[in-house]
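Handout for the seminar on molecular recognition.
Each group receives one record of this type.
Step one: identify the two inputs.
Step two: read the structure output and locate the region that could contact NAP.
Step three: write two sentences on what you found, then compare them with the reference statements printed after the record.
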Amino acid sequence: MPLRVCVLGGTGFVGHALVKRLAAEGHSVTVLSRNIALHPERLLPPGVMVRETNVYDPDGLQIQFTGMDAVINLVGILNERGDNGRGFRRAHVELTQFVVSACRQAGVRRLLQMSSLNAGRGRSHYLKSRGDAEAVVKASGLHWTIFEPSVIYGIGDGLFTRFGQLLRLAPLIPLARADAKFAPVFIGDVVEAFRRALVGPRSVGEVYELYGPDVFTLAEIVRMAARQLGLRRWILPLPDALGRLQALAFDHVPGKPFSSDNFRSLLTDSVGGIDGLHRLGIEPTRVAKILPDILGHADDKQARYARFRARHG
Ligand SMILES: NC(=O)c1ccc[n+]([C@@H]2O[C@H](COP(=O)([O-])OP(=O)(O)OC[C@H]3O[C@@H](n4cnc5c(N)ncnc54)[C@H](OP(=O)(O)O)[C@@H]3O)[C@@H](O)[C@H]2O)c1
């Protein structure tokens, strides 16, 4: 049965793939965005309605949620201004409180909440606020489902695509927490997990860890990306003392490509315990199958161009 679904954070990497899939299945999808103009590259597929909304206004949220069958909260940030946890609390915990109360007021029972593997563990503000947001959802009295992914990969991701860009520019990559482990999960599998949970009543009250079958260290991920691009690069693992200094320096770079809080998150390996994809009947996708789609083959045009640019600036 087609559902009316409202998505927060639907203009991002995950959101774009998810709303496309839900719309293709015939669901009526409304995306709430703080600023549509900021996302020209992420034009949403036909059939998806976008409404510019202050998502931190509970009354506005209630109006948008009225008449919906389900709300999906994908909002998340990797970095905040400063390093005191306030930005993470606002985007993860307070926003979730507003979403929960607007759901109740608008009579929406179903809430799908994006979280993160290791939510509530470790020492980073990011993971702590994720855990606190989960506690809000679990105490909501709504029909909730929580998703905890490791790092998500796919075309345009923040992992292989981002390192690919860096590798094209720099012959040497000094890497903090190079031994940190990840079990990357394919965006297609994440989307499928949300889709199945949305339509399957058995997922109510469940937390699904989403992770892939391959476990890599950060250094292995960067080396894999370099190999795929056919680039020879020197990956320099930094001891933690230097990694902390690197993070401190990046804290002051606009856009924070890396931060002290990221460093603290990386102290906890992002590998799973109970396989949520299998629990949902999804066979996880291997990285090797998708990597050429993300970075191209070492001998194809895109990778040759990357090598040309790397050589000639
Ligand atoms: N990508 C991954 O590897 C990964 C791994 C684990 C968990 N996750 C979680 O999955 C969710 C989606 O990830 P993503 O990669 O799609 O992120 P993304 O591309 O950064 O998109 C997140 C969306 O959230 C909204 N947003 C950003 N900052 C916000 C703020 N301060 N307050 C309110 N809304 C804000 C933005 O929408 P508008 O600008 O349109 O409002 C943005 O499009 C996030 O919660 C993320 O933490 C992602």
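Reference statements: The first strand starts at residue 4 and ends at 8. The pocket of NAP is lined by residues 9, 11-15, 33-35, 38-39, 55, 74-77, 91, 114, 116, 149, 151-152, 158 (CB under 6 Å).
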